[in-house]
Amino acid sequence: MKLIFFSCCELAIQDVRFGTMSLINLIEEISAVAFPIAISRIAAVALFEKGQDEPDSHPVRLTAHLNDQQVLDLTLDVNFQGQGRTRMVAEAQGMPITNPGELIFVVSAGETMVEVGRWIINVKIVGAPKVDLFTGPSAPVPSAM
Amino acid sequence: MKLPSWLDTRNIEAQFVIANTPNFIVRRLKEDKVPYLLSKSMAPDQLLKLFIETSRMEPENLRELVTPYICLSALSLLNDGKYLKDAQTFTSAAHHQYKWLRAYTQILIDTFRPTSFVAMKARVIDNSVAVGTASSMNYVSRRFPQ
Q1: B14-33 residues touching A, CB cutoff 8 A
Q2: Which residues on B lie below 8 Å from A16 (Cβ)?
Q3: Residue of B115, B130, B134 lying closest to A35 (CB–CB)
Q4: How far apart are CA B127 and CA A53, in angstroms?
Q5: What is the full per-residue pLDDT of chain B (146 aa) written as tens digits?
């Protein structure tokens, strides 16, 4: 089994009638003024392909690390149901982001759970207040009466 | 066992009359809301049972003629493809009036796209807090040790 595609987005929609998948708002960067924050919705979407002689069911492991912290560890079986390709959608309703850095989603598969794909989200701090030790008053200080 | 009476199949019947290939009617039924409504109103086992029973009977009108096709389209909307494969085994026992049933089922099976859905729950092992000053960037709160 091999990974064709792996990505993280805000919303993954499957058209029930036609079976098509749409990924809305790919998440490749998260910016915040202060931490911790929470991502309200995130979905990890993967597309796998298998050979004809391979079994239908394969164990897949999905992990996520924020810098050195492991925030997610999930093992599931993806079932090809007789088809050559299958999709995996892992959804979370809220994910806490405690500090800036790199949020890395890793997909592992096979008997030894070898990494087959990763998606890196840069978590950065923006608009950080700076402490200026040499600021002076912008207007003349009124003299005391 | 019959199709629920509240389902309006007139549009499908009209499409079926002018259909020249099984693929045409597959596409038309995908665009129609009836298979979706049927899949939401009946359990998969009931849908399969409805398909088996209606496909064996001789159709007396257009509504009965399109019923097995609607059942198959409704089964194809399920996330589990096994119901569609189960239905395929019964197409050989179908009445000869349903001439496209086998090809119709095969198209649905070939175009079926399996998807595994799972809910992930994120956890915080280390509750770290970072704010915008250089000194506090390195500050790690240990208020909630694991």
Answers
A1: 30-31
A2: 36, 77
A3: B130
A4: 46
A5: 788 889 999 999 999 999 999 999 999 999 999 999 999 999 999 999 999 999 999 999 999 999 999 999 999 999 888 999 999 999 888 888 898 999 999 999 999 989 988 888 877 655 444 333 434 444 444 444 44
CA distance A109 to A4: 13
- The answer to whether the beta carbons of residues A71 and A65 sit under 8 Å apart is yes
| Cβ <8 Å between B36 and A128 | no
Distance CA B34, CA B95 (A): 23
pTM score, two decimals? 0.77
Do B129 and A69 make contact, defined as CB atoms within 8 angstroms? Answer: no
CB-based contact A86 B114, cutoff 8 Å? yes
Judge if ipTM > 0.95: no
Please report, as a single letter, which amino acid is at residue A14.
Answer: Q
The DSSP result for B94-139, as a single string, is: S-TT-TTHHHHHHHHHHT---EEEEE-----SS-----SSHHHHT-
What is the DSSP secondary structure assignment for residue B92, as one 8-state letter? G
